[in-house]
Amino acid sequence: MKILTIGDIVGKKGIEFLKLKLKNFREENNIDLVIANGENSAEGNGILPVCAIKLFKSGVDVITGGNHSFRRKEIFPFLNSNPGLIRPFNFPKETTPGAGIYKISVRDIKVGVINIMGVVYLENLRSPLEAIDQAIEICNDCPIKVVDFHAEATAEKRAMGYYIDGRVSAIFGTHTHVQTADEEILPYGTGYITDVGMTGVIESVLGVKKELSIRRIKSRLPVRFENAEGPCKMECALFEIDEESGKTVSLKRLRLL
User: Fold this and answer.
1) Which one of 68, 150, 175, 177 is the catalytic residue?
2) Which of 15, 21, 174, 213 has the lowest tally of Cβ within 10 angstroms?
C-alpha cells in the first residue's frame, strides 16, 4: 500500500498549490491513501470548514491537526461531524471536539491514522508516550497504522519513533514546517521521518512574510503575521507498506515545485 503524507499546509496559497499538484501526482504514483496536516490552512493559522472541504475535494483522505486545531471555533462542529478530520489524541476528550484517531478502509484493508502532539515547548498535555500506547491499542484491528506526531523538539520525535518502532507502520513528524533529511526504516520495520515539511510559499518564514518575522525578532514587539505570496512547494513523504506484515518496505522524501 502506498501512503502519501503531506507537511503542514499554510493558508490559501498552500491549499491552491496542493489542489494543483496532488491529483496528478496521486494518479501517476498509484497512491492509495493521502494524509495531510491542515492545522495552518486558514489564513492566520487554524483550520476552517471551508479549508477542510477544499482539502478533501483536492484528494486528501485524512486531515490531521496540532496545536492550532482549535484556533477557530467555527471548526468545532465540523470536527464532530467529519471523522476524516482529526486532532491530537492526547487532548482531553471530555472537553475538546473531534477525535484523535480515524480508521479508514483502503481496498478492504483497515488503516488506523493516529494524531499525537508533543509536549516539549508546546501544550501541557497528557504524555504522548502514554497516549500513543492507548491509541495503538484502540487500533489493534488495523493491520496498518500511521502516526502524525505533531511536535517541536527533534529529540522528542526521535524518541517517539524508537518507542513505537515495530508497533506501527509509519510515523511522520509535523509542526516545524522544515523538511528533515533523516527518512529511514527503523530496526523493527517502522518508516520514520522527523518532519515532513510544509506546503506553502517557498520564500517565507514557515509560510509567513519574511519581513514580518524579521521585524518580530528584531523589535521584540507584537507583529500581526500575514501569509506570504509567491511560488510554492509541496513537501511530503511517500511510504510503501507491506499489507501482510504492516511494515514499511520503502520510503521517499519528496518536494514538488
Assistant:
1) 68
2) 213
